[in-house]
Amino acid sequence: MANHIFILIAVMLLAGVFGGLVNYYMHSQHDPDTTSLPRCLVVGVGAAFLVPVVLDFVNSELVIESQGDPSRLLIFTGFCLIASIASRFFVVNVSDRILNEAHAAKERSESLQHDIRLIQHELMPLIDTETEQDASKDDNQGPLAPEDELDVTSTNVLKTLGSGRFIFRSLAGLCHETNTDETTMVKTLNIMVSRSLAGKVSGKKGMRWHITEKGRRVLEANI
Q1: What is the CA radius of gyration of the chain?
Q2: pLDDT per residue as tens digits for the range 168-191
Q3: Are 47 and 91 in contact (CB under 8 A)?
Q4: Cα 113 to Cα 209: distance, rounded to the nearest angstrom
Q5: CA 23 to CA 169: how far, in whole Å?
Q6: What pLDDT, on a 0 to 100 scale, did the predictor assign at position 63?
């Protein structure tokens, strides 16, 4: 395998130099003042060494297949030569493609991180509800504060949040089950959230409300 890598390096180097010379003589006929031989050689060699990267982008196994197969090695040499001759356009196109791939990967990563944070935020109430607390370390133990006493509307809303098949409840669903108008429901929910009796999360389907552990304790004390 090591010998094959050295062979590929030699092929890319020779193809790059030869393609750079071809590129130099082709362009020197049209604009000899702006054509530089060292520049053409460097760009040609660089373009030839980018061929394995391009082959990897298109999921080609030509580099591996060229080991022990002279015909595939000859095809690889041809690719390197073509890339070297067209090095001015090849290097720019490959660089742009690599930058675009990196930018797309960054956007996918940021989108995935946002989704993970959103899922974690939505799952925390469920985890807190289903996790048994240590009584000796539970901050919710002890008598209720006077401000935690509930009125009739708050009690009904809290009961609705604490029962049923859904953990996260919509505004429309809460209004329907408690026979409460939307304005009163919003006001009640905001008060309960401020008192840590209920929580709210914003998901893909909009705002949803859930009962907290403190809300469950207050609800049990008022039943």
Answers
A1: 34
A2: 888 888 888 888 888 888 888 888
A3: yes
A4: 23
A5: 69
A6: 84
Separation between Cα atoms, residue 150 and residue 111, nearest integer Å: 41
- Pull the structure tokens for residue 211: 């009962």
pTM confidence score: 0.38
Mean pLDDT taken over the chain: 76
- SS3 at position 33: coil
Domain-wise residue ranges, the chain: 2-100, 142-222
Task: Please state, in angstroms and rounded to a whole number, the distance separating the CA atoms of residues 82 and 65.
Answer: 19
Q: Which fold has domain 142-222?
A: Arc Repressor Mutant, subunit A (1.10.10)
Q: What was the pLDDT predicted at 163? A: 79
Contact present, 215 and 178 (Cβ < 8 Å): no
Pairing status of strand 206-211 against strand 198-203: antiparallel
